[in-house]
Specification:
This protein is 18% helix and 29% strand. It has 265 residues and is of the alpha+beta class. The protein has 2 domains: 134 residues, no CATH class; 92 residues, Immunoglobulins (Immunoglobulin-like). Strand 13 and strand 14 form a beta hairpin. The radius of gyration is 19 Å and the shape is globular.
Length: 265
C-alpha cells in the first residue's frame, strides 16, 4: 500500500495531475478555491473544504456529472467540535487541515485509478471497492471520535521541515500505515495490528495509542502483542472509529498507524 505521509514538497509524479506538481501547491489551491478536482476519463474525484462556518471537508467521486453516492460513498470529515475547544485559530491550523484533505483526495484518486485498471471498460456503476486501498475509503468519519491528532501533535512543526536522517538501527515503521476493519455490533473481537519493520533487538520500541477525544472503554490494547480486543457496543452500529497508534524507538521519530474500525449491524 502506498505511503500516505506526503511532505509539502513531494512531487506529484504518482499523484493527481495539476496544481503545480506538488502537494504543497495543491494545499494552497484548496485553501484559496475551497475545491480540488482530479479527472480520470469520465470520472472525477472532488474534494471541497470549509474552514469558515465549520471545519469540514468532503471527498466524493463523480461520473458524467453524477455523484456516485452508492458505488463510492462520499467521505465527510468534520473537525468543528474539536476546533471549538481552541482559543485561537492560526493559519498553520488551516494549512494542516487542508493537508489532511489533500491526503485523502490523493488516496481516493489512486484507489479510483486502480479500480478502473481492473474493471472491464468504463462502467458507470462500479460494484466493488479496491480491497487494497479500502482502508482510506471509510464511510463518514465522526467528529466526536479521537481524530484530532493532526491539530495537537505537531502544532509547532514547520511545514517545510524535513526530518533528520535516522540510522537503520533506530528507524522503525509499520508494515502498513493504514488498515480498516468491519466488526459486528455487540460481538467480541481480537485483531492483530500490522507488524513493525526495521526493528533491532538492541533498540527498545514503545507503542502507544492516541487517546485524543472520548476514551473507548470497550477497547483494550496490548503493546506487547500488538493486539486490540474487546466487545463492540450494540449502540455503535453505523459508526467508524479512528485510532492512531505510535511506534517510537528510544532514539528516533515515531511512526503512526491509522486504524479505522467500522461497526456494522
Amino acid at each position: 500500500m502506498p505511503q500516505q505521509t506526503w511532505r509539502t514538497n513531494q512531487a506529484i509524479s504518482d499523484l493527481p495531475p495539476g496544481y503545480g506538481g506538488t502537494k504543497g501547491q495543491a494545499v494552497v489551491h484548496l485553501l484559496r478555491h475551497h475545491e480540488i478536482v482530479s479527472r480520470h476519463g469520465e470520472y472525477q474525484v472532488r474534494t471541497t473544504l470549509d474552514t469558515h462556518r465549520a471545519w469540514r471537508y468532503r471527498c466524493s467521486i463523480w461520473h458524467r456529472g453524477r455523484e456516485l453516492r452508492k458505488e463510492f460513498v462520499p467521505i465527510i470529515v468534520d473537525r468543528t467540535e474539536f476546533l471549538r475547544q481552541e482559543s485561537l485559530i492560526t493559519e498553520e491550523m488551516r494549512i494542516r487541515f487542508a493537508m489532511e484533505a489533500v491526503d485523502l483526495h490523493i488516496t481516493r484518486w489512486m484507489a479510483l485509478q486502480r479500480y478502473l485498471a481492473q474493471s472491464p471498460g468504463d462502467a458507470a456503476a462500479p460494484r466493488w471497492y479496491d480491497k487494497l486501498l479500502v482502508a482510506a475509503i471509510v464511510i463518514a468519519v465522526c467528529a466526536a471520535l479521537p481524530a484530532g491528532y493532526w491539530l495537537w501533535s505537531h502544532r509547532h512543526e514547520a511545514l517545510s521541515e524535513q526530518p533528520p536522517v535516522e540510522s537503520p538501527t533506530n528507524a522503525v515503521r509499520w508494515e502498513q500505515d493504514q488498515v480498516s476493519y468491519e466488526l459486528p455490533a455487540g460481538k467480541r473481537f481480537a485483531l492483530l495490528l500490522p507488524a513493525l519493520e526495521n526493528l533491532s533487538e538492541s533498540v527498545p520500541v514503545s507503542v502507544t495509542i492516541d487517546v485524543s477525544g472520548p476514551r473507548l472503554n470497550w477497547l483494550h490494547f496490548s503493546p506487547a502483542t500488538l493486539v486490540i480486543s474487546g466487545t463492540t457496543p450494540i449502540d455503535a452500529a453505523g459508526r467508524t472509529f479512528h485510532l492512531i497508534f505510535h511506534a517510537k524507538p528510544d532514539a528516533g521519530h515515531a511512526s503512526p498507524l491509522h486504524v479505522y474500525l467500522t461497526i456494522t449491524q
